[in-house]
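Batch 3, record 17
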Amino acid sequence: MKASLGRIGAMMTRYTYLYLVSPIRILELVYWPTFNMLIWGFMQEYLNAATHPAVFAASYLVAAVLLWDVLFRSQLGLTLGFVEEMWARNLGHLAVSPLRPLEFVGALIATSLVRTLVGVGGAGFLATLFFGFNALELGVGLALFFLNLVIMGWGVGLVVCAILLRYGLAAEALAWGALFVLQPLCGVFYPVSILPDWLEPIARALPATHVFEGMRTVVQDGRLDTGLLAQAFLLNIPYALAGLAAFLGSYAVARRRGLLMSTGE
Amino acid sequence: MTSAPAAVEARNLSKEFDGRTVVDRISFTVPRGTTFGLLGANGAGKTTTILMLLGLLRPDSGEARVLGHDMERDRFRALQRANFSSPYVSLPHRLTARQNLTVYGRLYGVAGVRRRIEQIARELRIEDLLDRPVGQMSAGQKTRVGIGKVLLNNPEVLFLDEPTASLSPESATWLRSFLGRYRDSTRATIVLASHNMPEVEAMCDNVAFLQQGRLLEQGAPSELIRRHGKQTLEQVFLEVAEAAIDQRRGPGVEA
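Prediction for the assembled complex:
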């Protein structure tokens, strides 16, 4: 166990070094979450002035965009760690080291968590300064929403890594774009009830949908709907397991086809 | 009393890619403390064999064992005590040599990584390279840093893919002698792939000739030279390779 944590720590050291040798990368962590939040924050201000308060809760859009960024950054953080190894043609070296695939996944998850906290945390702080939005007002729900979103982000991220292992860097765009396929379905900015009837069951099969529904309940009614959270947690279990199975399965195929040493630019 | 298992064993290893056989039922044993060379032209199957021995590539059939561990079921125990380097797969370019060695030192659970890196840098004469990004190094410098990574965990088995391919003649000679000293002082085993016959003749206790994935002949270089009545290992290899080609063509077919 200690050795295992040591190897996960070694990989986190590797990703930390990447920021030390290129400090400009830290900017990338906070740049998009911040500007995303600012755009939607100003939109929120405008809507608050133009519509009746009953129609639109005061911090609804800012909360939505910050939580969406938690989901997106957790997926991106995990996938980019993996893509970094492909760019560096380092997968072969890692595969002949004592690093187990599950430890590699552990390191990617831990790094993704740090990246998400830095990126979204910075944007959340600015949301307080600019728009008076206090994420802590979401109460205990904030931690539970966050946890559900990062788990789903990791599940999707692992599936993307599995595809990258299979198809190489030709599939690199998926690292940035995969989750946007799900964004219209998750009900980030609107209730899923406005979706066409045939899309609603698909939307409700996504853990994030229940988180965003839950977020709206807290912001509008000040009430934490534990039923929605429970559904999100229950759905996340198969999502996370499927992501892990996809990654490990793809890793095994890569070993059979000799892709680990040849992967790279 | 049971004797220690061989350092490396290949038993009927085979591998196909897209219906083309690249390694065909290869078997050999490498005793501990010896140097074994896989010889052959480009595409002979040397690197594929090494990758299967390391567990990086799964054989279609056969078995690879390193330090007694089955590389299909139990490879991480062996990988902890082995290491690998290839001039064709350098360490990540953005990180400095020291940062790369620190990461790999920690992956291998090396105690006192910082001290170990300094020690290796002195031995390999790469102190001046330690704080330079790997991407800013020449091919030869990357190879030397790669060898530094190989030595980090004091491996009992070193897998080296063409270890001197990108080095100047004097650096190559120095590295060969360094690896020989390392092996003698630690009783480590070295498995190397090369098409540099003089190098293999100088370094290896035993060699295996590969051609189109098949193991044509194996033995000690001096024994092979004597058996074939030749002056050098290169002459032996050419004779064995030509005989294999003739055999494949069949009787009565002119070249």
